[in-house]
Design goal:
29% helix, alpha/beta, 229 residues, binds nicotinamide-adenine-dinucleotide, Rossmann fold, SIR2/SIRT2 'Small Domain', single chain, 3-stranded antiparallel β-sheet
Length: 229
């Protein structure tokens, strides 16, 4: 079976109602990044960081996978599909996809601040000051913050380097190291870049830019890829 690797970013979930990072009407607009998504922020104002992620986690319990997430699941009947996502939502999982690597963590998980191997699933939206891990330390969001290492990046590089086809969806290709993953694809494999702003970029000739909504473009591309299998 041919291997398709999907790299997804915030635009993948935009039509489900989750704000992207740079949207002018996005949830992130009201906060300066370093005030809410960095280790310094956690040290200086834990309440603000908890509030920021609690609002976003709450929203996650209210949204659903969109047609793009669902179409990728269909692809899995015909190809060996791996998803490497920058998204911290669980919409690929809830649509039914199986092989998903979260580069930047997961919103519905929390972890210990003294032992990062202690990761817990939250079944409710609110993480509070005083919520402790089994070793007695404060729990924090299981998110890769700005300035922190991206532990899953080497696994992601390995996955991308094995792709026969690469599909990049809804990412501004601005956040590193995620944005550099495209460079690890084998030379001349077909690459599809679906993003509302896809035409603003110039790529090598093996990259086809599709400047459409993910929920519109992915089902069409999936149909095409299944037919040409
Ligand atoms: P980004 O916000 O930098 O870029 C989003 C991209 O999506 C833009 O290029 C935009 O043109 C495109 N887009 C918006 N709506 C679209 C649609 N309907 N269809 C297709 N494309 C669309 O996001 P990024 O590149 O993923 O990086 C931002 C960082 O923020 C990541 O680190 C990510 O972890 C985090 N983030 C995650 C979520 C989430 O989990 N859903 C949401 C916001 C931000």
């Amino acid at each position: 079976m041919k291997k398709i690797v999907v790299l997804s970013g915030a635009g993948m979930s935009a039509e489900s109602g989750i704000s992207t990072f740079r949207d002018s009407n996005g949830l992130w607009r009201n906060y300066r990044m370093e005030e809410v998504a960095s280790p310094i922020a956690w040290q200086n104002d834990m309440d603000l960081v908890l509030e920021f992620y609690n609002i976003r986690r709450k929203q996650l319990f209210e949204v659903e996978p969109n047609d793009g997430h669902k179409a990728i699941v269909e692809l899995e009947e015909h190809y060996d599909v791996n998803i490497v996502t920058q998204n911290v939502d669980d919409l690929h999982e809830r649509a039914g996809s199986k092989n998903i690597l979260h580069l930047h963590g997961e919103m519905k998980k929390v972890r210990s601040t003294i032992d990062e191997s202690l990761v817990y699933e939250l079944d409710h939206w609110e993480l509070k000051k005083g919520d402790l891990c089994e070793k007695g330390s404060q729990l924090r969001p299981h998110i890769v913050w700005f300035g922190e290492a991206v532990p899953a990046i080497s696994e992601a590089v390995n996955i991308v380097s094995q792709a026969d086809i690469l599909i990049i969806i809804g990412t501004s290709l601005a956040v590193y190291p995620a944005a550099s993953l495209i460079d690890y694809a084998q030379t001349n494999i077909p690459i599809y870049y679906i993003d509302l702003n896809a035409n603003d970029f110039s790529f090598k000739s093996n990259v086809k830019c599709i400047a459409e909504r993910a929920g519109q473009a992915i089902p069409k591309l999936v149909e095409e890829l299944i037919k040409s299998k």
